[in-house]
Amino acid sequence: MAQIPNLDNAPLNFTSLRDQSQKELINILKNIRGRKCLVIDPKLGGSISSIVQTSLLKAILNSSCYFFWFVSPEAKKQEHGVELRHLTADPIQTECTKVVYLVRSQIDLMKFICSHIHNDISKGLQREYFVYFVPRRAVVCEKILEEEKVHHLLNIGEYPLYAIPLDEDVLSFELDLAYKDCLVDGDTTSLWHIAKAIHELEFSFGLIPNVRAKGKASVRVADILNRMQAEEPVNASDVTVQHFCSLSKIFIQNRSQLLRINNGAVELDSSIMGVQQDGKKIKVPLNSSDKLFKETRDLNFEVVVQVRPLAAICIVTAGSTSKSNLHEAGLHGDVNYLQSQTVSELKDFVRKLNSLPEMTRHINLAQHLSTYTSKPAFLGRLDMEHTIVEAQSYDMRELLHSYGFEHMATLNNLEKAGLLKKQESKGNWLTVKRALQLVVDDTDTANPNDISYVFSGYAPLSIRLVQHAIRSGWRPIEDILKLLPGPHSETKRSGFASSPSFDSLPGAPHTADKVGGGRRSLVLVVFIGGVTFAEISALRFLSAQEGMAYDLVVGTTKIVSGHTLTEAFVENLG
Amino acid sequence: MTAVSVAAEWQQLYDRYYRKPELYQLRWNHVDLSRNKVACSPFGGPIAAIRDDSKIVQLRSESALRKLRIFTSAGAQISETVWKNPGGRLIGMSWTEDQTLICITQDGTVYRYNLHAQLIEPNLSMGKECFENSVVECVFWGNGVVCVNEAFQVFCISDFKNPRAVRMAETGIEDFPLCVAVIEPQYTMSGNVEVLLGVGDHVMLVEEDGVQQVGAGVGPLQKMVVSRNGRYLASFTHDGRLLVMSTDFSNIIFEYNCESALPPEQLSWCGMDSVLLYWDDMLLMVGPFGEPVRYLYDEPIILIPECDGVRILSNTSMEFLQRVPDSTVSIFRIGSTQPAALLYDALDHFDRRSAKADENLRLIRSSLPEAVEACIDAAGHEFDISRQRTLLRAASYGQAFCSHFQRDRIQEMSKTLRVLNAVRNQEIGVPLSIQQYKLLTPSVLIGRLINAHQHLVALRISEYLGLNQEVVIMHWACSKITASLAIPDISLLEILLDKLKLCKGISYATVAAHADKTGRRKLAAMLIEHEPRSSKQVPLLLSIGEEDTALTKTIECGDTDLVYLVLFHIWQKRPSLEFFGTIQARPLGRDLFISYARCYKHEFLKDFFLSTGQLQEVAFLLWKESWEVAKNPMASKGSPLHGPRIKLIEKAQSLFSETKEHVFESRAADEHAKLLRMQHELEVSTKQPIFVDSSISDTIRTCIVLGNHRAAVKVKTEFKVSEKRWYWLKVFALATIRDWDALEKFSKEKRPPIDPRERAEAYARIGMAKEAADAASQAKDGELLGRLKLTFAQNAAASSIFDTLRDRLSFQGVS
C-alpha cells in the first residue's frame, strides 16, 4: 500500500525536495554504525511517514499504538537494523547500545530524553545517545539538556526538515502548534521556521518576486523572509514562483472533521476495512495517489450525484471528510439521508460490479462514517466544540462545573488567543461580506464559475483574498483589508541578478508571467495557522478556472480541522 | 632592439641557450651577503637577512645590535627587528609557502616571523633531544624542515601549518654526515619525508620508521641537492666530480669532472636541464652534454632555485638565469629563418614602411598561425616591457593575415603580462616569470600581495581578473584597524565603510571581531551595526558586552533561537531583578523566557511574575502545582496531603482576588477548594476513594448513584447548580442505575425543565431503546427517531419499535 503521496504531476519539483529529505534521513541513520534504537516523537513520526518510501519503511501495526519497524534492504544485510520507538515518558526498553532520538526542537520533549538517560544511568546502562533536532538545533533545548547534566553525553545533530509535500500542490511545514504558540505563548519560532522553509524553497526554485501578506503573523513572516534574503541572497535569475501570498488565519470558523485525516491518511480500526485483524489500526491513504479520491475530493456534493448517480454517492461521504466546511447541519442531514437509504444497498451493488478496490475501501469508509456520525456522542462533541469556540453565550462557570476545574488553563489559553472574546462589532463583517461577495446566492452547480460553488454558496474570505491578491494585488481592496484584523503588506523583490527587462515590463504581467513551454507560472499560497481541505479545494477550483494564469501551490503550517485547531489549546492543569 | 643584440646576450650550453637578464638593481645599501645569513623565498618572494654570527664582526663597521631585516626581491626593506632571541646560534632560516620566516637556533627552538618581522607566538621546539644536543644542520623544503643534531639524530616537522616535531628512525652513524638532502613527502612512495645522509662512501636513506643504505660506493658525497620534481639527485663527490643520479640511486645520468676537488659553496638545479655549482667567484653551469658555461662574479652571490631557472642575488643586483624558451630562440637566434623570426622581421619592415614586410609574410603564409603563437609565447617570457610590446605587435600584425586563429590569445596574454608587469614593478618587487605565475596561481599571488600590505595592487588585480575582492578588502580593513591606533573611531569607521561597501556580502562581523581584538570595542560595536547576518552579528555583540543591542537585534530578526542565546547570556550575567526588567520591556524576549521557565524553572518564573506584578500568573502556577502535589505518588487519595493542596489553591484564590479583572478565576479557585474539601469529606464518609478530582456534575451523579441524595443536594446548593443541569444529572444518574421508581417519582415532582429530546438521548446513550423511543415520540421529532434507530441498528426488536413510532408520527403529520 503506497503510503507516500505521488508527486509526479506537481507544478513544482516536489519529488526532488522529498528525495533530499529522504536521503538526509537515511544518511543520518547510516552514519550511526551498528544496531540502533530510533526514538521519534510521535507527531514527527507522522510527518516522516509521508516522506519515507514504502520500500524503506515497513509498517507493522501494533495493538496499543502504531509504530514502525523499518529496515532498509541493504542496511538489513549489514545488520544496521533500526528499532523504532515513540518518544514517551516511559524509559526505552531495548537491547541496542545506541539510541537515536529524532525530535522536534520543542522544550517539553527534552524532559523525556533527560528522564530516559537518568533512568539508564541509575540502572548502570552504558549507551551512546544521539539527538537529532528537526529542523534545527535549538539553544533552549540544549540549555535544558545542559541543566539536566546530560548534554555532554549526547551527540547532537540536526535534520533540516522544513517542509513536507503532502500532495501535488500541498506543502506542509508540520507546525501543529504554530497557532497556539504564537497566540497564547507569544512564541514566534514557527514564524521563523515558515520563513526559513520558504527561503529554502527559493534556493531550489528561485526568488519569489511578489510577496503579499495579510494578518499580523503573515506580515511578520514576509518581513523575516526579506531579512533572510538580505542575509543570504537567492539569485533572481531563475524564477518559477511568481507570487507568494501569505495569510494568517483571520477568522476561525468552526470546522469539524469526522475522521482525522492526518498526513494524508486516515487511521481506522481494521474491522471497518473488513480485514480480520482485530484491534489493529490501518492507515488508509487519502491523497491524490488514490485516483478516485482525487476525482471526487474536490467536487461538490450535488454534482457528483448527478454525474455518477450510484457509485459516487458513497465516495462523497468519504470525500466529505475532506470537505469539512459543508455546513454542519447540512452534512449531518446528508449523511443520515445517505445512510438510511443507500449505503448498504450500494455496497452490494458495487460488489456485484466488482469495481475498483478503492471503491470498496470508500464504501467501507462511507459506512463507517455514517454509523459514527449518527452516534449521539459525536453530536454531543460537536455541540461542545461549537460552544467552546464560539463561546458566545456559554457560561464558563458551567463548563468548569461539568468538565472539572482542570480545564481552567484551556480557558485561559483560549482567552489569550482571543477565541473566547465576543465579537465587538458585527458591522465590519457585513461590509466585508458584501464587498468581497462572500455569499453568492445563485450558484450554478452544474456549470460553476465561482469558488463559492465549493461551499454551496459561501466563498471563504481567505480564498477571496487570494483571488484578489493574484489578480490585482492589495491596492484595489485596500479599504476592505483595513477592516479585517491585522496589517497587510506587499513587497516587490529582486535579487542581485534581476534582469532589467523583467522590471521594465510591469504593464504586461500576463506575458511576463508565462513561463516558457506553455507552463503556467506559480503562486504559493501560505496559510499560517493551518488550512482546511475545503480551502484547498477552493484553491484548486480557482486554479482550474479558464483564464487563470497561474498554478496554485498551497503551503500551510498544518492541515487543520476544528478539532485539531482547538486540540492545541487544551492544556489540562491536572 | 634588433634581433641580433638580443641573442648576443645568450650563452650556449651544448644545443641550448641560456640567458641571465637583470631583474633589479637592488635598492638596499650596505648589505654584504658574505657577512649575512640570508633566506630567499621562491616565486619572487621576500629576502630575509641577518648578520651571520659564525663570522667575525668588524668593529665599528656596523651596529653591535643584531637585526633581522626583511626585503622585497628588489631590495626594498619591508621590515626589521632586533634579534635578541636566546637559544644560541641561528642554524637554519627559511621561508615557508605562506611566507612565514622560520628560524631555528642551536637549542632546537623554532622562531616564526611574519613578513613584517613580527614574532608569531608561540615558539615551537624540535624536542628536548635537540635542546640537549645542539642542532647542527637544517634542511628545508616547501613547508617542512629536517634537523640533524650533534648526536646524529634526525628530526622533522613535515608541515608548519600543523607543526609537530617527529623524531626519525635512529641512524646509528658515528660521524657527522658529510651532507644532507631531503626528498619532499609529495614525491616519496610512503608519502612521508625521506632524508638522505651522505655517510662514508654511501648514502643513508632515513625515514620515520626505518633506515636503509643506498648508493653504496658512489661517494663519499660532499654535497647533495634533489631536483624540484624529486626524481634526480645532483651531488659533488670528494674527488671533484659532479654526479647526477636518479633518487633511487639505480642509475647515474651523467658525470662531470670539475677542476677543483674543493666542494662548491652552493649546488643548485637550474630548472630541470642543468646544475649550477658556485665557488668563491665562479658560477659553473653544467649540462648533460657539452662544455659547461662559466660566469664570473666579483661579489658573493646566492642562488635561489625557481621552477624554471635560478635567481641570482648579489650585493647589488637580482638576476634570473633561465633557459631561453624555444619560441624566443626561434625568433631571435642569429640567422633564424623560422616563420616566427620572419614575422618579427616583417613587423620591423612594416614599421619602416618597407615592402619587404609583405614579402616576408608571403614566405610564411602557410605557417603564419604558428608564427603568431610563437610571438605571443615569447612575449610572455620577456621581462622587458618594450620587447613584450614589440612581440605582441608582431603577433597582432600576423594575426591580421590569419583567417583562423584563436583571437583571444593575444588579449589573454596582454592581460597576464599586465598583471606580471604590475607586480614586477620596483615598488612591489615580485619578479615572477610567467611559468612561476601559472604555477603559483593568481589567488595565491593576491594572498601574498595582501600579506605584504600591497592592498591596492591586489585589489586592482583581483578586479582585473574578475576574482573575488572580498579577501582583499577584508584583509585591508583588518590591517587598517591594526595600523590606525591614532585615528578616532568615527573617522576610522567612515574610512572603513567607504571601502567595505565595495564588496557585497562582506562579513562586517569579521572586521568588527578584529576591531574588538585590537581593543577598539566602540569601533567594533559601530561596525557590527552594518552586519546583515544576525547569526554572525549577535554572538559578537554578546562578546563585546552589548547585550541589550544584541537582544533588540535578535528580536527584530525573528530568529527565536538567537533570542534564547542572548536571553541565557544575559540571565547568567545579570542579577535576577535587572534581568526581569530587561525582558519585561521586550515582549518576545519575555514570552520566550516564560515558555522556557514554565517547563523547567517554576520558582524562578514565580519570582518574575511577582516582581512584575502579574499576580494572576503566579496564581495559575500555584494552581497548576496543586495538581502536581496530587500526582505525587506519595499522595494517595484521601490522604492528609490534600491539606497542602487545598492551601495552594487558596493561595491562588487570594492572588486572583487581588485584581479586579480576575473575579471569575478567583471564584473558580474558591469553588475548587470547596469542592475538594467536600469530596474529601465524602470519601471519608463513604469510604470510597472515587470523588476527588471529579467535576461538580460528576460528584453529584456519583452521589445519586450511591443513593446519597442528601449529599447530592448539598453539592447542588453549595455550587448553585442550575435546575436544568440538576434535572439532567439526576435523570441520567437514575437511568444509569435503572432506578425507575425514583426516576418516575422525580419526573412527577415538578415540570421537567428538560427537553424530551435530551431525555431521549440520555436513554439512548445508556442503551435503553424503548424509553428513548418514548421520549422521542413525545418530542414529536421524526429526525431524532431516525437517528436513534441507528444507534440500535443491531437490535432488531428495538428497530421495529422505532419504525412503528415513526410511522405513527408521520401519520400524525399527514392528518
Automatic annotation (TrEMBL), chain A:
> What's an example GO BP annotation here?
vesicle-mediated transport
Recorded superkingdom: Eukaryota
- The identity of this protein, by name, is Vacuolar protein sorting-associated protein 33A
Give the similarity note. Belongs to the STXBP/unc-18/SEC1 family.
Which InterPro entries does the record associate with it?
Answer: Sec-1-like_dom1, Sec-1-like_dom3a, Sec1-like, Sec1-like_dom2, Sec1-like_sf
- Which portions of the sequence form the region Disordered? 491-515
Spell out the PANTHER family in the cross-references: VESICLE PROTEIN SORTING-ASSOCIATED
UniProtKB/TrEMBL annotation, chain B:
Q: Name one GO biological process term.
A: vacuole fusion, non-autophagic
**Domain Vps16 N-terminal, residue spans:** 8-408
Cellular component (GO) terms are:
endosome; HOPS complex; lysosomal membrane
Question: Main localization of the protein?
Answer: membrane
Does the keyword section mention Membrane? yes
Top-level taxon in the UniProt lineage: Eukaryota
Question: GO MF annotations for this entry?
Answer: actin binding
Coiled-coil segments on the chain, per record? none
Q: Where is the Vps16 C-terminal domain?
A: 506-754
The cross-references to Pfam families, in alphabetical order and at most eight, read: Vps16_C (PF04840), Vps16_N (PF04841)
Q: What keywords would UniProt list here?
A: Membrane, Vacuole
Q: Where in the cell is it found?
A: Vacuole membrane
Q: How does it sit in the membrane?
A: Peripheral membrane protein
| Homology family | Belongs to the VPS16 family.
Main function: Required for vacuole biogenesis and vacuole enlargment in dividing and expanding cells. Involved in the docking or fusion of prevacuolar vesicles.
Q: What name has this protein been given in UniProt?
A: Protein VACUOLELESS1
What is the species listed in this Swiss-Prot or TrEMBL entry?
Escallonia herrerae
Per the UniProt record, the lineage of the source organism begins with: Eukaryota, Viridiplantae, Streptophyta, Embryophyta, Tracheophyta
